[in-house]
Every structure is written in structure tokens, then in C-alpha cells.
Amino acid sequence: MSRFRSSKLFIIVLVVLVLATSAYAFAAANTVPASRAGEGSGVISGYAVSNIVYTFDTANPSNLTTVAFDLDNPATTVKVSLVAAGTLQNCTSATPFTHWSCTITGVTVTSASSLRVVASQ
User: More exposed terminus of the chain, fewer Cβ within 10 Å: N or C?
Assistant: First the structure.
């Protein structure tokens, strides 16, 4: 009887070892690609705007057609508004992205109340 118990125990241990080894083999086959995560902070500073030039409509000089200006550092996106809480108008630039020209629509000389420049790197 003791020999039967030993054989039974040996078979159980053998089955457990086989299952444990196969589970390890499946777990060892997993691969996860490298990834990154992090947190940081940096200073956000504004731009200095200079050399502002307004252009009037030649057919109706009471309308503004463009505003051009320089930024002290390059930007990738620039928009302007000449009316408080007005719609932002797109601007364009050529390399080095410091001199910008913005087409203005629907703004008269009398309705222009402020030059709002929104710029980002």
C-alpha cells in the first residue's frame, strides 16, 4: 500500500511540475514594447511684438485689410484680433517665422479697439 501511495504522490508531483513549467513557458513568452511616461514643467513666456503696420483698403480707407508685425522669437502658429472679444484671424509667415502678416476681414478703423496677438511655438 505504501508503494501505491508513493507512486500516486510521484504522479501528482510530476503533473504539478509539468503544469508549473508550461505556465512559466507561456509567461516567459510575453513581450512588452518599451514605453515612456513622465512629468515635468517649463517656463511659458510671451512674445514681444514690434514693428506693427496696418494696411487700409484702397477702395475704402475706413476698412483695414492687413496687419503685419514682428515677433522677438520664432512661432509656428499666430492669430490676431483687432476687436475686443473678436474672431481670431489667421496669419502667415516665411522662414524664420518672426515676421507675420494677417489678413483682416470685417474690421473698420473705428471698430478696431485693440491688437490681440495669440502665438505659439
Answer: N
